[in-house]
Design brief:
By secondary structure, the chain is mainly α. Helix content is 80%, strand content 0%. The protein has 20 helices and no strands. The radius of gyration is 23 Å and the shape is elongated. The mean pLDDT is 93.
């Protein structure tokens, strides 16, 4: 623990609040979680709060019958999880299952959104990523993507983006019905560029699995071609990577991509994209050429 007077004062304050969290008084618990919420907004305070052992108590209060206490508790866990050193300790306090319960059952949008954001933050660590997927988070996140507020959709996409870095989660996401929702987001003109880029990256990750290629090929090939033409530099790069995976896996997808008029955009990308985008676009164009030569040879 840092021995600076300020942080020692924070520690003293947190220890008093912990006693209120342990109280049977719902009002004391609500006020204590509210004060911790304010304190945890400051990056300097987060490790002090976590080191005082507050995580287990906050996890217990995620099941409080008082909405304000639940929202405060999930928000404190979200704030604490921003610091990487707290991600494992929060998971070890059995927070993941409880956060998923909030995401699945809470009737307060803020609680759902902050739960999704907390899971997303925790999923930046590979160990947590696996546990979150195994604990059943994908379905509730997809539900939030489908029916949440704008902020909820953003939190859901970011969480799925982090979770899709794990192969087992790629399969779960592919089988969850998320692909159609991600494609709809990509096709929405008003969607923020950063959100579209994350959605495209998820599709590119999914396309590295056989289950993902089926889902992306059925619902997303046309949208990915549009991204190659009109997307951001990062979006074009990942869209080209996804299309390359699709086309190499099936002549059916290859025909679909060609029928969408993708060649001019791929040629442009092979000359003007990021180094990875140039490589993916060139590989895809070379694949098309080899397919044409093979077809001509059979005639």
């Amino acid at each position: 623990m840092d021995s600076s007077p300020y942080l020692l004062g924070v520690e003293s304050q947190v220890l008093k609040l912990i006693e209120d969290l342990k109280s049977d008084s719902a009002d004391l618990q609500r006020r204590a979680t509210g004060e911790l919420r304010l304190l945890s907004r400051c990056s300097e305070n987060r490790n002090v709060i976590a080191d005082c052992g507050v995580a287990n108590l906050l996890v217990g209060l995620l099941h409080s019958s008082y909405p304000a206490t639940r929202v405060n508790a999930v928000t404190v866990l979200l704030n604490l999880s921003i610091d990487d050193r707290n991600k494992i300790s929060i998971a070890n306090a059995n927070a993941i299952v409880s956060l998923i319960d909030v995401l699945r059952s809470a009737d307060i949008p803020e609680a759902k959104e902050n739960s999704a954001a907390a899971l997303s933050s925790l999923a930046k660590i590979e160990e947590n990523r696996v546990q979150i997927g195994e604990s059943g988070a994908i379905g509730p996140l997809v539900e939030l993507l489908a029916n949440g507020t704008l902020r909820g959709k953003e939190d859901a996409v970011t969480a799925l983006y982090n979770l899709s870095k794990c192969r087992a989660n790629m399969v779960r996401i592919a089988q969850s019905g998320a692909v159609a929702l991600l494609v709809s987001l990509i096709d929405r003109p008003s969607a923020a560029a950063g959100l579209v880029d994350k959605a495209v990256t998820i599709l590119a990750n999914l396309a590295t699995t056989s289950e993902g290629r089926i889902a992306v090929g059925q619902d997303g090939a046309s949208a990915l071609v549009n991204v190659v033409e009109l997307g951001s530099a990062r979006g074009k790069e990942n869209a080209a990577a996804a299309l390359l995976q699709l086309c190499r896996s099936s002549s059916k997808y290859c025909r679909v991509v060609l029928q969408q008029g993708s060649v001019p955009s791929l040629v442009a990308l092979s000359h003007c994209g990021t180094p990875r985008a140039k490589q993916k676009a060139s590989s895809l164009l070379n694949y098309f050429q080899k397919q044409r030569e093979a077809y001509a040879g059979r005639e």
